[in-house]
C-alpha cells in the first residue's frame, strides 16, 4: 500500500508537513512517500500565464505522484482561514491539466496550526472544494496548538488524547 503525504505549505519548517509525516507513518505495512510543495513551485497561476507557458511539466508530475498513491495524507496550512498560496497554486495549475486533481484516492485530511483553531477553517474550505476536484475525503483531523501538542524533537503528537484520536481514525481508515 502506497501512501503519498504532504503538508499544504512551502515553509521549510512546515508543521503541517511534520503532522502529515507522523500520520502517514502510523499506517501499517505502508510504503510512505513524503512530497514537498517546494518541488512543485510554479509561477502564480493566471490565465495569462497559462497562455504563455501552457501546461507545466511540474503540474503533470504532481498529478503522476498522486496517481501512484493508494491513500493520500494531506495536512493543510491555514492562511487567513483558507489555503496557503503554495497549495492553492499547484492545485490550480494541476486542475487545468486534469480536473480530478486528487484522483478519487481515499484521503485523510489533516490540519494544524499554532493557534487553538488548529486549522479547522481550512478543513472546512477543503471539504467544499476538494470533492469537486477528485477529493475523496474519508476522514479529517485537526491538531490545535501545535507547539503544545507535538514534540518536534521526537516528531510525535505528545498529547495522548489527540494522539489516540488520530490513531483511532487511522485504524478505522484501514478497515473501511
Ligand atoms: C499569512 C498568514 C496567515 C495565517 N492565518 C492563519 C489562520 O487563519 N489561522 C491559523 O490558525 N493560523 C494562521 N496562520 C498561522 C499558521 O497556522 C502558521 O504559520 C503555521 O505554521 C502554518 O503551517 P505550516 O508551518 O505548515 O506552514 C497564518 C500565518 C500566515 C503567515
From TrEMBL:
This is NADPH-dependent FMN reductase. It comes from the Bacteria. Coiled coil: none annotated. Residues 1-131 form the NADPH-dependent FMN reductase-like domain. PANTHER family: CHROMATE REDUCTASE, NAD(P)H-DEPENDENT FMN REDUCTASE LOT6. Gene3D superfamilies: 3.40.50.360. It holds the Pfam family FMN_red.
Amino acid at each position: 500500500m502506497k501512501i503519498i503525504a504532504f503538508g499544504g505549505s512551502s515553509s521549510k519548517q512546515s508543521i503541517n508537513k511534520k503532522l502529515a509525516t507522523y500520520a502517514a507513518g502510523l499506517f501499517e505495512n505502508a510504503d510512505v512517500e513524503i512530497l514537498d510543495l517546494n518541488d512543485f513551485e510554479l509561477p502564480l497561476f493566471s490565465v495569462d500565464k497559462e497562455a504563455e507557458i501552457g501546461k507545466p511539466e511540474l503540474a503533470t508530475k504532481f498529478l503522476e505522484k498522486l496517481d501512484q498513491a493508494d491513500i493520500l495524507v494531506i495536512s493543510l496550512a491555514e492562511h487567513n482561514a483558507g489555503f496557503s498560496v503554495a497549495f492553492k497554486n499547484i492545485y490550480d495549475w494541476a486542475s487545468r491539466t486534469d480536473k480530478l486533481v486528487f484522483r478519487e484516492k481515499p484521503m485523510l485530511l489533516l490540519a494544524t496550526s499554532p493557534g487553538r483553531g488548529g486549522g479547522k477553517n481550512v478543513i472546512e474550505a477543503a471539504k467544499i472544494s476538494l470533492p469537486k476536484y477528485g477529493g475523496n475525503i474519508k476522514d479529517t483531523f485537526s491538531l490545535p496548538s501545535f507547539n503544545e501538542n507535538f514534540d518536534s524533537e521526537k516528531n510525535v503528537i505528545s498529547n495522548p488524547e489527540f494522539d489516540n484520536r488520530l490513531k483511532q481514525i487511522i485504524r478505522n481508515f484501514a478497515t473501511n
